[in-house]
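quick one before i forget lol
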Amino acid sequence: MTFLFAYLAVIVAVGLLICFKGRDLFRPAVAVVSFVAVYMIVSSAVGNDRNGMITAALAGLVAALLTGFVLKLGVFILGILGGVVAGSALQQFVPIDLEHSRILFIAVCAIIFGLIAVKFLNVMISACTALSGAPLVTAPCTFLLLNAKTLHTYVGHTYDETIRHINEELFGSLQANHGGIVLGAAAVLFLVGFIVQMKTNKKAF
């Protein structure tokens, strides 16, 4: 039983961190992932000797430092593409006769959409992390409340078996039979987490 409670506590703790501190944790997490990915790619290409490891580490460090710029650039480009589509659709309803004026209108829309996308990047990160973390909190809590008297039946002979039983319940039976409760609680926690992040978390990018 101790392991069962410990496993659920870890899931809830991770969910709370993501839900309420997701924006603060996002950039370090992306930087770490970028470092590891680039390090593995470069080291496999140049070899695992001392010089190769140093080269791979430097490449990984550069990638980690550039994650913020690259992410902003990617979001800006996606915003521009969205702006081009929106501008192309809107220019039909704007009284513009000259062809170069139409192109200018679309270009202005593209730039505006790109800037808006970058401007609201932190809002998007806060919303996505709060949305991801909320179910990790509400599902285990709902599971404990609904199965308080039968928790011992989920304890297996090994740790792996216990984890499998809990995961099958959390992501299977619980969602199928009590999905509305989990979803409703997650929606409330999402709103709270999003508001807390917007008021307390630093700007990630």
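fyi The chain has a mean pLDDT of 86.
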